[in-house]
Amino acid sequence: ITKVSTQTLLAMKARGEKIAVLTCYDYSMAKALDYAGIDILLVGDSAANVMAGFETTLPITLDHMIYHAQCVARAVERAFVLVDLPFGTYQGDPKTALSSAIRIMKETGGHGVKLEGGIEVIDSVKAIVNAGIPVMGHLGLTPQSINLFGTYALRAKSDAEAQKLLYDAQLLQDAGCFSVLLEKIPAQLGKEVSEQLSIPTISIGAGKYCDGQVLVIHDMLGLNKDFKPKFLRQYADLFGTIAHAAQSYISDVKTNDFPNEQEQY
Ligand code: KIV
Ligand code: NA
């Protein structure tokens, strides 16, 4: 098996092969997704939402992220394991950012980190890249700034915000990022950024012209029952599958059908 590296991903953009990314937070899921041939497994801070049940991504800690990343990295043979730096671990100053990223690299077996923002965090990006750690940028809707935005609505609809995003994307590339994630922006802007950059863009709600796509695994498997944004394609109904399986089990236990003669010692 040839492991996916930042070079693999750059080469994929160069030859026009799309990059498939999913989020992942645990060992068993990572086994299945790596087996399926996913290019990047993102240990996203969306773990705060789908694993821990928080309203926003702000409460998750670096220790929590390290735990999830360890679980994923233990399972993976091929995929590039990318780990989100959580809120509060990189915005303050480059030294803190670097020590956060170093903890992830030393303690988890992950291959790189992702952080949110452009010019505001560019010194942190440079410090991490200069230490030899691959960094993916994240622009557009940046959920760690939800309290500033006020909503999870589409970003960069105005010309001014679109221009800033194009500028930030270029800054991130120049600072040495190997890729930039674009969240919830118009498809035309996603196209412009993807054409402007030589590093791959990864879209979540940023349209078909980006160099790759990412979805939160719970959303695409239909585990996150009532979350149905326009950009989401749902590939399974795991909530229904799990609930039905549990109902069958409950019924079998109550009716004394389970276990039967063959299922006991
Ligand atoms: O944490 C996350 O799930 C993300 C998404 C944008 C994929 O960063
Ligand atoms: Na994230």
TrEMBL record:
What Pfam families would the database entry show?
Answer: Pantoate_transf
Complexes and interactors: Homodecamer; pentamer of dimers.
Function field:
Catalyzes the reversible reaction in which hydroxymethyl group from 5,10-methylenetetrahydrofolate is transferred onto alpha-ketoisovalerate to form ketopantoate.
The places in or outside the cell where this protein is found are: Cytoplasm
Q: Which GO terms describe its biological process?
A: methylation; pantothenate biosynthetic process
Instruction: Report the sequence similarity comment from the record.
Output: Belongs to the PanB family.
Keywords annotated in UniProt: Cytoplasm, Magnesium, Metal-binding, Methyltransferase, Pantothenate biosynthesis, Transferase
Q: For 3-methyl-2-oxobutanoate, which residues are the binding ones?
A: 45-46, 84, 114
Q: Which domain of life is it from?
A: Bacteria
**How is this protein named in the record?**
3-methyl-2-oxobutanoate hydroxymethyltransferase
